[in-house]
């Protein structure tokens, strides 16, 4: 009997199978998205070159999210670039750095998503009663001036001490803002929530998929 080496006849490699399983897992839980255009914002705006920004003091989380969202937004008609790839200096995340990336990539829009962790206690704070998730990166900071243009922190020293979600699990809610770079002018805001997330990878894919689909539905990208 010949001792021939065993060869796999499976059509896909293990990394491919794992990626497929991850993508399927990411579709398991439906996401909820609500959004609105800013007052006076044109309704015929469609962007073709989008810079994606994940607002987080954790560079690893920020880049992982940006890569996922950029891949979901990209199409034959739309080019999406993560700020982690476009910025010469990834940290700190500043307006100057974003503007330099916008110029180098000739981006006509920036999609900034807040990924800074915030613990909410609706019973005592009275500020948020949407669901019971412990991770809610909301837009509360925009109202108080904590964030500036393109969603970047105004005072980066304070932002560095802000907790960043190490794992995106449980009930997740994030806020994304779309900026037209010619201003810059904020043109659209959306809140995206996903429930019962069991892993960080799944959470990132679910959020990225829902955000990208909403942008296309609103005609902001194609």
SSE blueprint:
Layout: H1 14-26, E1 31-37, E2 49-55, H2 59-73, E3 79-82, H3 83-86, H4 95-105, E4 109-114, H5 122-125, E5 135-137, H6 140-144, H7 156-160, E6 170-180, E7 185-197, H8 200-217
Parallel strand pairs: 2-3, 2-4, 5-6
Antiparallel strand pairs: 1-7, 4-6, 6-7
Helix pairs in contact: 1-8, 2-8
Number of helices: 8
Specify Rg, calculated over alpha carbons. 19 Å
Number of beta-strand segments = 7
Described by strand count, sense and barrel closure, the largest sheet is:
7 strands, mixed
- Given as residue ranges, the uncertain stretches (5+ residues, pLDDT < 50) are 3-28, 118-144
The helix-strand sequence is HEEHEHHEHEHHEEH
Helical fraction equals 25-40%
Look at the helices and sheets and give the structural class. Answer: alpha/beta
Q: State which percent range the strand residues make up.
A: 15-25%
Overall geometric form: globular
Mean of the pLDDT scores? 76
- The rounded distance between the terminal residues' Cα atoms is 60 Å
Report on this structure.
With 222 residues, the chain is of the alpha/beta class. It contains eight helices and seven strands. The chain has helices at 14-26, 59-73, 83-86, 95-105, 122-125, 140-144, 156-160, 200-217; strands at 31-37, 49-55, 79-82, 109-114, 135-137, 170-180, 185-197. Helix 1 (14-26) crosses helix 8 and helix 2 (59-73) crosses helix 8 (200-217). The longest helix has 18 residues, at 200-217. It is globular. The model is unreliable at 3-28 and 118-144 (pLDDT under 50).
């Amino acid at each position: 009997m010949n001792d021939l080496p065993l060869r796999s006849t499976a059509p896909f490699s293990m990394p491919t199978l794992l990626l497929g399983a991850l993508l399927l897992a990411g579709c398991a839980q439906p996401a909820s998205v609500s959004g609105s255009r800013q007052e006076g914002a044109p309704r015929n705006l469609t962007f073709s070159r989008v810079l994606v920004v994940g607002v987080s003091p954790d560079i690893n989380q920020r880049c992982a999210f940006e890569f996922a969202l950029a891949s979901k937004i990209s199409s034959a008609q739309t080019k999406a670039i993560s700020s982690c790839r476009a910025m010469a200096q990834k940290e700190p995340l500043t307006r100057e750095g974003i503007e330099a990336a916008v110029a180098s990539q000739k981006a006509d829009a920036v999609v900034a998503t807040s990924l800074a962790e915030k613990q909410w206690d609706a019973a005592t704070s009275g500020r948020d009663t949407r669901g019971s998730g412990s991770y809610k990166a909301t837009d509360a900071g925009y109202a108080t001036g904590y964030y500036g243009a393109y969603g970047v922190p105004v005072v980066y020293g304070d932002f560095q001490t802000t907790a960043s979600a190490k794992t995106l699990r449980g009930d997740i809610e994030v806020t994304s803002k779309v900026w037209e770079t010619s201003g810059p002018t904020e043109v659209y805001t959306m809140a995206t929530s996903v429930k019962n997330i069991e892993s960080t990878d799944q959470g990132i894919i679910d959020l990225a998929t829902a955000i990208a689909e909403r942008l296309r539905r609103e005609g902001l990208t194609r």
